[in-house]
Amino acid sequence: MKTESPQMKVREFVESMYPGHDVEVKGYRSTRGTGGKRAQYTAQLFMNGKVVISAQERDWRKAYKTLQIQISKGSVV
Q1: Tell me, what DSSP letter sits at residue 38?
Q2: What is the mean pLDDT of residues 47-71?
Q3: What is the pLDDT of residue 31?
Q4: Cα–Cα nearest to 24, from 3, 54, 62, 57
């Protein structure tokens, strides 16, 4: 059984909505957390080399889920 990462799910979702575009999904954690909390994780959607939309959450899985929700609610291109 193959499990897909949240990153791959978002990428496939966007590729199905916008065929023909160069789609890339990346994420990173900032270096500092404030007030003893975990640092924010940022998930970003790149289309044709430019950042189109991003989402920040403390949990990386939730960041990708939020990114997918934002994409489905609004027009990206």
Answers
A1: P
A2: 92
A3: 79
A4: 54
